[in-house]
């Protein structure tokens, strides 16, 4: 945390100066639009650079908006993803934030806690709110009960399964979340799959993704056992992260590894779709194009098992916020006009086509065959629309949760004591929260 604070403070001077001039980090607004705007109101916007397809979409979106009307002009600045949020924090401290800000959902809490964001509740019309996936409202709502972030899409997370392998092993294929495997069925399925010679490790948990993945990917498992990472009331982790249900969930992980169902030293990304030594893969929507290309119709979605307390999925996306700076400058209504345009059905459909994520609006989902009942991606919709999504810890200390949980998980994968590692993580997280004074405000 000390290292992060020093980094942020070192950036404050940079953004104090930058606030008085133009950023050199990838401005993509049309110079002609800005210079020839006349009485146009300028709405400044920052975002992180995404995939080439997503980046192309947003650049075209900004250009088309600027050319479509005579009242507003978006001045867009883009930043590399690996430094973006540190730069955003520094700009907040130096009062150099733009009007519109693109944030990971996990960053919303810190920004709201610091007072850097304006609540969106007064701008959001009821018809749009009712058309949004409930998971996005859950992700964008801070502990004060106010909505600060709107995502154009959400993630899809479950198991990708090789249908041919499941059929070969005579494993029942669940039809949806109400038909999920029980824990006993899941254990039996893994044993049957392990017995097939070409299947070396039945379950690919994406160990190769590293420590940062666990706070997202394993949370649905933990919830299925009745556990969680953070206490909803205290906003601390003691007694929850290291509570009996969460400990049981991570002990189950060790059991899967000990039985040879999971490769604890995995470094490859293609065990499921390339080498085909795994029959199930715990990964999200971003792998759908690859799975479809490599496996065709044999690539199917399967829900998480019901470990006793229900079937869950992860929630996670980037989204748009209006800053307190915009409100102070009196351009918050104009910023909302831009954000409202971004949330239109057409633009949500287009950004989801660019990045493969689940469209935010139910009306858009209704237009896409893959998201209809019986469609190959319907499970993603079903999980999020029915409220089975579990949001990652909504706390300004999220980065500490992610680091400590990830490290504990990787240590457990490598054979460390489960309870000991979770005790250690809970202590470190709560110490950090108390030192920062997050629960005092």
From TrEMBL:
PROSITE patterns: PROKAR_LIPOPROTEIN. SUPFAM superfamilies: Periplasmic binding protein-like II (SSF53850). Residues 1-18 form the signal peptide. Keywords: Signal, Transport. Pfam families: SBP_bac_8. InterPro entries: SBP (IPR006059). Belongs to the bacterial solute-binding protein 1 family. This is Sugar ABC transporter substrate-binding protein.
